[in-house]
TrEMBL record:
PANTHER family: CYTOCHROME B-C1 COMPLEX SUBUNIT 2, MITOCHONDRIAL, METALLOPROTEASE. GO terms for molecular function: metal ion binding. It comes from Cynoglossus semilaevis (Tongue sole). Pfam families: Peptidase_M16, Peptidase_M16_C. InterPro entries: Metalloenz_LuxS/M16, MPP/UQCRC_Complex, Pept_M16_N, Peptidase_M16_C. GO terms for cellular component: mitochondrion. This is Ubiquinol-cytochrome c reductase core protein 2a.
C-alpha cells in the first residue's frame, strides 16, 4: 500500500500537534497545582545574625530556608602576611586545600564531595583566604567537618607540596604600593559565614569542631603606602598604564567618597559594545587626542589602607597624551569641576551595582564575611546605601585632591618610549 507524500507529512504534523497539546495541558495542570501550593505561607527569611565565640571564631549566618547551604570560612592569610622568606606561601596554601590531611586523603576528599553532590573551592586575595563549600542542608554537618579538616588539619606531605611549587606564580604587584612586615601564619579561623542554616546549629558546630584548634594568631603591622614605579618594556604596540595613589580604608566615609569619584570619572561602558558617554575620562581623552581610547578609574579598599587611580590603554605613540588627559580629568574634579547631575548619576550607579551584586548568594556571602572579618559586625544593605547618600560634593573634591597631591605609583608595560615617568605627574 502506498501513501502520497503530503498525506504522510499531514499525519506526522497531526501527531506532533497532539503531543504538543498534551504537553501544554500537562504544563497547565502543573502550574495550577503549583499555584495551589503557593497559597501556603513559607517561613520568612531571617536577618543576619553575628556572634563571637569564646574560641575566637566570629560567626555570621543568614537563615533563608533554602535547601542549599553556602558555607564560607574566611581566614586572615592573604599575601600581605607574607615575608621575604616565604613569598608565595599563601598561593601554596590555596592550591593545597584538596591535599591529604590528618583525617582523609586527597582522593577521599574528592570522592566524598562528589558522593554528596557538593563542591569546595578556595580563593585568595591580598588580605584573606576564603574556603567555600556548597551542599544540601541535610549534609551540612559532614561538609563542616570536611571544611574544618581542610583548613586546620593539613599535613603538607613533602612529595605533595613539591608538586605545587612549580604551579605558583608569585604576584608582586602590591610591593610597588605597600610595605609591611608581618607573618603569614594564622591558626585561628577568625570568621565564618553560612547561608541557609540556623544560627544556633552553626554556633554549636563552631564551638565543638574548633574548640581544640585555637592558635595564638599573629600581630599585623599597619600597611604603609610608599609609592613607586614599575616599567616593563616589551614589543607590545599597546601601552597599559596604571597611575594610583593612596585611597580610603574599607568602610570609612573617605572610601565611600572615592567610590562616588570612581563612577564620576567612569568605570567602563554600561551597555554591551557601547561607548561610555558619561565618563569624564573617556570624554577628556577623546577631546585631547581626537580618538577613542580605553580608560577607567579603579578603587580598592583594604582594612588599613586603599588604592585609587586610573587605568589606560593606548597606542604607544599616544600613550603620554592619553595618560596626561586622564590625570587632567581627576585634577579638574579636584578643582571643583563636578555638578549635581554628576553626583546623582554616580550615586545611582554605586547603589545599583551594590544591590545587583548582593542578589547573588555567593557575593552576599563574601560581603557578610568581609564585614564580619574586619569589624565583627554586619551592616544591612539599606544602612550601606545610606552611607552612599551622605557623600557630598565637597567629599568627592577632597578625595580627588588627595589623589592629585598624594604620592603616585605607576605601573606600565609595552613600548614605553612615549610613556611619561611617575615623577612627571
Amino acid at each position: 500500500m502506498f501513501y502520497h507524500k503530503s498525506c504522510v507529512v499531514r499525519c506526522v504534523l497531526e501527531n506532533w500537534k497532539n503531543v504538543l497539546l498534551q504537553k501544554r495541558c500537562y504544563a497547565a495542570a502543573r502550574s495550577v497545582e503549583a499555584l495551589k501550593f503557593s497559597t501556603t505561607a513559607s517561613p520568612a527569611p531571617q536577618d543576619v545574625q553575628v556572634s563571637k565565640l569564646t574560641n575566637g571564631l566570629v560567626i555570621a549566618s543568614l537563615e533563608n530556608h533554602s535547601p542549599l547551604c553556602n558555607v564560607g570560612l574566611f581566614v586572615k592569610a592573604g599575601s600581605r602576611y607574607e615575608t621575604a622568606e616565604n613569598l608565595g606561601v599563601s598561593h601554596v596554601l590555596r592550591l593545597a586545600a584538596n591535599l591529604t590531611n590528618k583525617n582523609a586523603s586527597g582522593l577521599k576528599i574528592c570522592r566524598s564531595l562528589e558522593a554528596l553532590g557538593g563542591s569546595l573551592s578556595v580563593t585568595s586575595s591580598r588580605e584573606t583566604m576564603v574556603y567555600t563549600a556548597t551542599c544540601l542542608r541535610d549534609h551540612l554537618e559532614l561538609f563542616l567537618e570536611t571544611l574544618v579538616n581542610v583548613t586546620t588539619a593539613q599535613e603538607f606531605r613533602p612529595w605533595e607540596v613539591s608538586e605545587l611549587t612549580s604551579r605558583v606564580k608569585i604576584d608582586r604587584e602590591c610591593e610597588a604600593f605597600f610595605t609591611s612586615t608581618s607573618c603569614v601564619c594564622y591558626t585561628v579561623i577568625p570568621s565564618q559565614n553560612i547561608l541557609g542554616v540556623k544560627h544556633s546549629v552553626l554556633r554549636q558546630v563552631g564551638e565543638e569542631l574548633l574548640s581544640d584548634r585555637r592558635g595564638p594568631g599573629v600581630a599585623t603591622d599597619k600597611s604603609v603606602y610608599r609609592g613607586g614605579e614599575l616599567r616593563v618594556q616589551n614589543s607590545d604596540s599597546l601601552v597599559h598604564a596604571v597611575i594610583a595613589s593612596e585611597g580610603g580604608v574599607m568602610g570609612s566615609a573617605e572610601a565611600n567618597a572615592f567610590s562616588v569619584l570612581q563612577r564620576i570619572l567612569g568605570t567602563g561602558p554600561h551597555v554591551k559594545r557601547g561607548s561610555n558617554i558619561t565618563s569624564k575620562l573617556s570624554l577628556g581623552i577623546g577631546k585631547a587626542t581626537a580618538q577613542p581610547f580605553s580608560a577607567a578609574a579603579f578603587n580598592t579598599s583594604y582594612s588599613d589602607s586603599g588604592l585609587f587611580g586610573v587605568y589606560t590603554i593606548a597606542q604607544a605613540d599616544l600613550a603620554g597624551e592619553v595618560i596626561h588627559a586622564a590625570i587632567a580629568q581627576v585634577r579638574g574634579v579636584a578643582e571643583g569641576n563636578v555638578t549635581e547631575a554628576d553626583m546623582t548619576r554616580a550615586k545611582n550607579q554605586v547603589t545599583a551595582e551594590y544591590l545587583m551584586s548582593v542578589e547573588s548568594s555567593d557575593v552576599l556571602m563574601e560581603e557578610i564575611g568581609a564585614q564580619t572579618l574586619t569589624t565583627a559586625a554586619y551592616q544591612l544593605p539599606h544602612t550601606v546605601l545610606q552611607t552612599t547618600d551622605t557623600v557630598t560634593q565637597e567629599d568627592v573634591v577632597k578625595a580627588a585632591k588627595k589623589f592629585v597631591d598624594g604620592k603616585k605609583t605607576m605601573a606600565a608595560s609595552g613600548q614605553l618610549v612615549n610613556t611619561p615617568f611617575v615623577d612627571e605627574f
